[in-house]
Amino acid sequence: MTAHDIVVLGLPGSGKTTFLAALWHLLTSDEVETRLSLVSLQAGESAHLNEIAALWRRARVQERTLHAGDRTVTMSLRNGAAPKFQLSFPDLAGESFQRMWETRECAPEVAASLRSANVLLFIHADKIKAPGWIADDAEDAEAAGLPPEPGKPVSWNARMAPTQVKLVDLLQSLQAPPLETGARSVAIVLSAWDKAAGAGMLPDEYLTAHLPLLRQYLSHGLNKAWTVRVFGISAQGGVYDEAGKPSKDEAQRIREMDVPSQRIAVVSAEGQSHDLTEPLQWFLA
Amino acid sequence: MTTMEHVEEDSEPQCANPDCKIASGGRCLEGFPEASACPQFGKALVIVPGITPTPKSSVSGLRLPHAQSLSISEATSLLRHGPCNVISLVGPFDSGKTSLVAGIYDLLQRGPVGGYAFAGSSTMHSFERACHDSRRDSERSEAHMERTERGEVLFFHVDLVGEGFDAKRAALFGNRAGEEYTMVHDEPDRAKAYPELKRSDVLTVLVDGAKLLNAGERHQVRAEVRLTLRAFVESGVAPPWQCLALVLTKLDAIRKDEAGRDGALSFFEALVAKVRDDYASNFAEIQAFIVAASPKTTNAHRGEGMHELLRYWMSDPARNVPAAIEQKEVAKERAFGRLPLLATARTGT
Predict the structure, then answer these.
(1) Is A134 in Cβ contact with B142 (below 8 Å)?
(2) Residue A202 above 60 pLDDT?
(3) Nearest residue of A to residue B66, measured between CA atoms
(4) CB distance from B143 to chain A under 8 Å?
(5) How far away is chain B from the Cα of A115, in angstroms, using its nearest Cα?
(6) Which letter does DSSP use for residue B257 in this model?
(7) Taking CA atoms, what residue in A is nearest to B115?
(8) Would you call B136 and A104 a contact, using CB atoms and an 8 Å cutoff?
(9) Neighbouring residues of A267: CB distance < 8 A, sequence distance ≥ 6
(10) B93 and B147: one domain?
(11) How far apart are CA A36 and CA A30, in angstroms?
């Protein structure tokens, strides 16, 4: 059987586990039409998949993935009438990628996963840390007639870098030794797309507006053999309940939907669907 | 991960420049006969420890490229990989050298600058560190820039792609402590030990705008610019294909001073005219720029004038333009050798 592997990248809290949970529900429930279909329930780490999918169905927030490279999810899939194939993706903690930026070191198990030619890069559309400048704030404060606020200077730490800087560095690392492996396909997933959709932009336009440094790098910095596609994905469909906190009205509304798979929205230049396998099929194409 | 600490000592008046020995009875490093005239004297001493090497993590992992500013050997290696413009930033302490480099990187965070788009950088940790004190995260009330420590030159690197072009061109910004460039006034041959100068496509000499507002200081500034250029030319580190940028920094400070503004700007104009008169034959081109890379007041917009400066920095290096060689026909000594010429002459008639 043919094997394909995908590496799922993203900073902490970028929606990687929620995507996996929603994908497993989508493939096992047959509620909506999907481009890829599940051949067998037998999966690598199926207990983990069932556990996170159960949380997703109950509209509860996923626990953060804290392990690094010790869990690889494998699914047996089929693309239409074509022969079945095995799709595997390691469920890596966002901290692994954060550490790569901060300490300039990559754990061997993470490095092994990063050899994949297919990269699913997650960016939480509503948690983008943009750079902010004192000079710009001073202009705004003066326009509003407010005095400048004195603060106690804070020393620099790599963790403080804007989201787009960390992501550019991550992609640069994939293009340089020791992680370089040749041409790759990168599907950029702007997760929590329901929060961004109000801006009335397509995912590509949103990326240009909110992550301009990353946009420039994708257009001019990547090796010409690399291909990039941007998707806006809402795998939750709204705000979920957090463990130990009061239930939210929005989570209740989502739970009350008759077809859970319809919580999912996938937006690209081609249109909108509930099909989370769309970016996966793009890799196969 | 590297850390940085700021230690402020304000128990007694001294100099903000830790290399200056004025407090212990020595002379002012900036060259002021009266210590009180020096803008650094009396300010709190800010000690910024050097960049400590990234410690090895206890987990054995693969080492990734360091992302700190490049040493001379790393910069030389990068030069071999493709087109690259080298820009040397020359100016005394606190004239705004690091602000210029950090300012370009910060402008790229919002989109292309002067028609050039960002295409990568191998020194992103150093850029981020340099930008930190002008960003909101630093929680400062006014933008600040870390002083460059004395030592070997280090390079900031950014890859750029010009509008309408496909290929990347790297920019390497040589960053050296201002005090080291000031020393060439006394010993011009010192410049030969600064390898970034001779390889520079654009020699960028900074003129501190805040100092031009002071009637006494401005003459010293002009003298320093002229001494620096003269030292570079005399020591042979300014090849004729090099371009010169004279950059007036701190435009916000100039605009803020309504009384001194016009005088400072016309003084700069006169300085540029004098440099053109004296050094036009030593440089391929001389251009002047007025910028506010990281303004401390609202009298100028962040990055004002930087777009034009980046375009100049990234223009085709003059060292790549072949000089035309005049063709001269040398008359052959032997009559036989002159026969073809005679034949041509007959055919023509």
Answers:
(1) yes
(2) yes
(3) A104
(4) yes
(5) 13
(6) -
(7) A216
(8) no
(9) A193, A197, A202, A203, A231, A232, A233
(10) yes
(11) 11
Same domain assignment for residues B10 and B101: no
B100 and B24 both lie in a single domain = no
Examine the domain organization and report whether B5 and B133 are in the same domain: no
A131 by DSSP, 3-state: which? coil
Question: Residue B23: which pLDDT band, with cuts at 50, 70 and 90?
Answer: low
CB spacing of A102 vs B161 below 8 angstroms = no
* Contact predicate B305/B290, CB 8 Å: yes
- Average model confidence (pLDDT) across chain B: 84
User: Do residue B45 and residue B70 come from a single domain?
Assistant: no
Please give the order of strands across the beta sheet that includes B169-175: B116-120, B154-162, B169-175, B84-90, B202-208, B243-249, B285-290
DSSP 3-state assignment of A1?
A: coil
Q: Is B8 on the interface with A (CB under 8 A)?
A: no
Contacts of residue B94, defined as CB under 8 A and 6 or more positions apart, other chains included, come to B39, B40, B147, B178, B208
The DSSP secondary structure of A206-258, one letter per residue, reads HHHHH-HHHHHHHHHTS-TT-EEEEEEEESSSSPPBPTTSPPPHHHHHHHT-S
pLDDT in tens, B233-272: 999 999 999 999 999 999 999 999 999 999 999 999 999 9
Closest CA to B176 of B103, B90, B78, B235: B90
Amino acid making up residue B346: R
Q: Which of A113, A146, A149, A156 to mutate to test the interface with B (most CBs of B within 10 A)?
A: A156
Which helix (H) or strand (E) is A185 found in, with range?
Answer: strand A185-191
Site from B99, B137, B139, B166 to mutate, A interface, most A CB atoms within 10 angstroms: B137
Locate the chain B residue with the closest alpha carbon to A217: B119
Range of the domain at B111: 66-315
User: How many angstroms away from the CA of A68 is the closest CA of chain B?
Assistant: 12
Flag whether B283 is in a domain.
yes
Q: In CATH, what number is assigned to the domain containing residue B159?
A: 3.40.50.300
Contact check, Cβ <8 Å, B134/A134? yes
Do B201 and B294 reside in the same domain of the chain? yes
Domain membership of residue B280 (yes or no) is: yes
**Can you tell me the ipTM of this complex?**
0.92
**Residue B341 falls inside a structural domain:** no
**Taking the CB of residue A44, how many other CB atoms lie within 10 A of it?**
15
CA distance B113 to B171: 13
Residue A156 to residue B138, Cβ atoms within 8 A = yes
pLDDT at residue B21, as a whole number: 56
SS3 A23: helix
The reply to whether residue A134 touches residue B141, judged by beta carbons under 8 angstroms, is yes
Please count the structural domains in chain B: 2
Do B61 and A219 lie within an 8 Å CB cutoff? Answer: no
CATH superfamily ID and name for A2-148+157-284:
P-loop containing nucleotide triphosphate hydrolases (3.40.50.300)
- pLDDT for the residue B106: 96
B301/chain A closest Cα distance in angstroms: 8
**What mean pLDDT is predicted for residues A128-155?**
86
Same structural domain for residues B30 and B155?
Answer: no
pTM for this structure? 0.84
Tokens of A29: 């429930």
- Let me know: does B100 contact B303? Beta carbons within 8 Å: no
* B344 domain-assigned: no
Touching check for B125 and chain A: CB below 8 Å? yes
Same domain, yes or no: B149 and B233? yes
Nearest residue in A to B61, CA atom: A107
User: Can you spell out the DSSP letters for B190-212?
Assistant: GGGG-HHHHH-SEEEEEEEHHHH
Predicted confidence (pLDDT) per residue in B129-159, tens digit: 999 999 999 988 887 877 777 778 999 999 9
